[in-house]
Amino acid sequence: MLGIDLVDINKFRMKCKNPKFIYKIFTDNEIHYGNKKGNRIETFAGLFAAKEAVIKALNLNLAYILRKKIEILHINNKPYAVVDNKIELEISISHQSDYAVAICNNKSLFNEIIIDKNIKKLLVDRNENSHKGDFGRVAILGGSNGMSGSVYLSSLASLRSGCGLSHIICPSSISNILQIKSTESIIEEVKCDNFHYSDEIYNKILIYLKNKDSLAIGPGMGRANGLNKLLFSVIKEYKKNIVIDADGLNALSDDISILKNHENIILTPHVMEFHRLSKLPLEYINKNRMEVAKKFAKENKIILVLKGQKTIVTDGDYSYINNTGNSGMATAGSGDVLTGIILANLSIMKPLNAAILSVYIHGLAGDIAKIKLGADSMIASDIVNNISEAYKLMRK
């Protein structure tokens, strides 16, 4: 059903002479948007027409406007409506002479997305009578000079995926940057420019890991000498769930024997990283993705997430092929976002379920970002920004 509304701009201008009118009708986001425009009154008239169009399309009452339960937001100057903080609808706004016209289509922006009911079952219910410690204390071990963004994205993604506390264990060289950048994350610094092995660094990391429910290793870590020894030592000592990505995978590629001595590890390589880990030719991997993934996971007793189009998740026995995601996600930092999502879920569920659910959520958030922005313009933070939308769709 379509909703259409027409607002007389001159009559609307008279209403705006009452300074309380704007603040009574519009949300803070709408007021900020309208005040930025040179044609301020015309802009607010268009927003008001859009709200009225939403009411007609959904057969609501005027209270939805007065209680600010309808909000008109913009992405790249394209408007859309949010109702009750959950329903997102297509709208258009135009101005003709002395009138503002708005049309609302009650079709959701995300109607084209069909949620996999089997994946939906993996979600863990959130007890209303709980506190932040109940949803996991997670840690990301990584970062280096010039690479603070990697751990930041992982931490933000873990928080958007429901963990209660997210700690970044980083070199002191980037600690100040992260403390300025990260409002919600907890920054725990280790005195070094980049991670490498020393007794002092190793012991400091162990102190930080004492009460953490899951650990991510690798985002932005770099490739310093002795990193392999440091990771071996940490993995040997930390017995809870671990996800290893990026530079963590590269550090392990010379010797992966530590994997067989730990029961709760998820590896998330793309094809080139898997080539380094498995020593198999790239061409052979690309032609036999499922076969080589299952064999590697089984031999090394790990969960393997082989990233790419149709990402594979396998423990060597059970395998899952993901069907969410798009080409816009082939962008710097996308893997760091996936690491953060997995990390959050690892703190509250079994590794295989955590990997499957997280890969699906990651791709779903990317698909939502594509609907809003297009594949060409997508960056990693757009995926993070739509994790919440992905979880809302999953919870419906």
TrEMBL record:
One of its GO terms (biological process) is nicotinamide nucleotide metabolic process. It catalyses: (6S)-NADPHX + ADP = AMP + phosphate + NADPH + H(+); (6S)-NADHX + ADP = AMP + phosphate + NADH + H(+). AMP binds at K307, G308, Q309, K310, T311, G335. Its EC number is 4.2.1.136. Residues 115-394 form the YjeF C-terminal domain. Its cofactor is Mg(2+). Keywords: ATP-binding, Lyase, Magnesium, Metal-binding, NAD, NADP, Nucleotide-binding, Transferase. The keyword Transferase applies. It is an enzyme of class 4 (lyase). It holds the Pfam family Carb_kinase. Gene3D superfamilies: 3.40.1190.20, 4'-phosphopantetheinyl transferase domain. CDD domains: YXKO-related. InterPro entries: 4-PPantetheinyl_Trfase_dom, 4-PPantetheinyl_Trfase_dom_sf, Carbohydrate_kinase_pred_CS, CARKD, Ppantetheine-prot_Trfase_dom, Ribokinase-like. (6S)-NADPHX binds at G220, H270, D336. It comes from the Bacteria. GO terms for molecular function: ADP-dependent NAD(P)H-hydrate dehydratase activity; ATP binding; holo-[acyl-carrier-protein] synthase activity; magnesium ion binding; NAD(P)HX epimerase activity. Belongs to the NnrD/CARKD family. HAMAP family: NADHX_dehydratase (MF_01965). Catalyzes the dehydration of the S-form of NAD(P)HX at the expense of ADP, which is converted to AMP. Together with NAD(P)HX epimerase, which catalyzes the epimerization of the S- and R-forms, the enzyme allows the repair of both epimers of NAD(P)HX, a damaged form of NAD(P)H that is a result of enzymatic or heat-dependent hydration. Homotetramer. NCBIfam families: pantethn_trn, yjeF_cterm. This is ADP-dependent (S)-NAD(P)H-hydrate dehydratase. The gene is nnrD.
